[in-house]
Design brief:
14 strands; binds NADP nicotinamide-adenine-dinucleotide phosphate; 33% helix; Rossmann fold
Length: 332
């Protein structure tokens, strides 16, 4: 392939639009095509975002010429099937979080990408933000001493509409898979392998066959002898911060830590400093740039968001779900 990376977007909802806007700031990226379940949606999306090709089905997009990589932007339960479809059409894949509903589905997708030697990555965009790189740099510098714990939280008050995907079990609803994946993923990225996890949740109803989790908290013990305390909620506008603490101080990523343009370092001696960490475009730009770089270099996974990382995160989500009694139709 030449230096241009030709993107296709599968699905035309909220995050598809945000990603399309972010892509405009990624050098060498062209948004070449969109696929939707309906021609009307595909054409409207294409018109709005200046996309040349609009396909009336996901299958057509997966088969299309002139597309190198497909960004999967459908609800969680469709992620695995849509990723398999795109890989089957010979396309690289960047798939929204959570990567699949469970570890089993995730394993099937990773296996196909490996078999076909195609790039595949979970769209965990926070991993590529300059703020996180700066947090890692400060941790490694020793400025906050020996790192012992992470607190990570993500919560907002979501719609109560029972038909919206966040409240609907058939669409993978609930706080854990939608929001809890962020604290989980960032704690894993910063503290490494998880040895044990313990979770509690508040469910939307006592009807086990329809309930989703509205608030979930979990504590993880990491292999290096560190602890992370994580929480998520679709019923609480929480501070949504990340705090990394060590023997000599702490680092704080501010509200909605996935989109922070500054971090704060507080030291044991009472001093404090703020470090600007500006991001490109709307923040999604960084993951698009990194996926493009992998395609140009012929990599099938990104070293900062590997297949093994994704599989480990999916296995942890399964364990947490087992503890809080959260099941989805595709677990059967
Ligand atoms: N990275 C982030 O910051 C971020 C933010 C929000 C969401 N997400 C993730 O992105 C995914 C999509 O979220 P969203 O908020 O964009 O959802 P959304 O607005 O509901 O859009 C989902 C799109 O998926 C397609 N779709 C296929 N089957 C569907 C079905 N049965 N019901 C509804 N839509 C269906 C539709 O596109 P067509 O009609 O065109 O086929 C729809 O527009 C979720 O997995 C979520 O976790 C990520």
């Amino acid at each position: 392939m030449d230096d241009t990376v030709r993107w296709g977007i599968l699905g035309t909802g909220g995050i598809a639009r945000a990603f399309a806007l972010g892509l405009k700031h990624a050098p060498g990226a062209v948004l070449a095509a969109v696929g939707s379940r309906t021609l009307d949606n595909a054409q409207a999306f294409a018109r709005e975002l200046g996309i040349e090709k609009a396909y009336a089905s996901y299958e057509e997009l997966a088969r299309a010429d002139g597309v190198d990589i497909i960004y999967i932007a459908t609800p969680h339960p469709m992620h695995a099937a849509n990723s398999l479809l795109a890989l089957g059409g010979g396309k690289a894949v960047l798939c929204e979080k959570p990567f699949a509903i469970n570890r089993r589905e995730a394993g099937e997708v990773v296996a196909l990408a490996r078999a076909k030697n195609l790039f595949l990555m979970e769209a965990m965009w926070t991993r590529f933000l300059p703020a996180l790189a700066e947090v890692k740099r400060i941790m490694a510098s020793g400025e906050i001493g020996t790192v012992t714990q992470v607190h990570a939280d993500f919560g907002f008050s979501a719609t109560l509409d029972p038909e919206h995907r966040v409240n609907k079990r058939e669409l993978g609803g609930g706080a854990l898979l939608d929001l809890g994946i962020y604290p989980l993923s960032i704690a894993h990225a910063l503290l490494g392998k998880v040895e044990n996890v313990q979770a509690q949740a508040v469910m939307s109803s006592t009807d086990k066959d329809n309930a989703v989790d509205t608030t979930t908290a979990f504590v993880m013990k990491h292999a290096g002898g560190t602890l992370s305390v994580c929480s998520c909620s679709i019923r609480a506008r929480s501070s949504s911060e990340l705090i990394v603490s060590g023997t000599g101080g702490s680092i704080r990523m501010h509200r909605m830590f996935h989109l922070t343009d500054r971090i704060t370092v507080d030291l044991q001696d009472g001093s404090s400093r703020t470090v600007p960490t500006p991001y490109l475009g709307n923040g999604y730009t960084h993951e698009a740039i990194e996926a493009g770089r992998c395609l140009r270099e012929g990599l099938i996974e990104h070293p900062l968001m590997t297949h093994e990382d994704t599989l480990a995160l999916m296995a942890l989500l399964d364990r947490i779900r087992g503890q809080i009694g959260l099941r989805y139709p595709s677990d059967a």
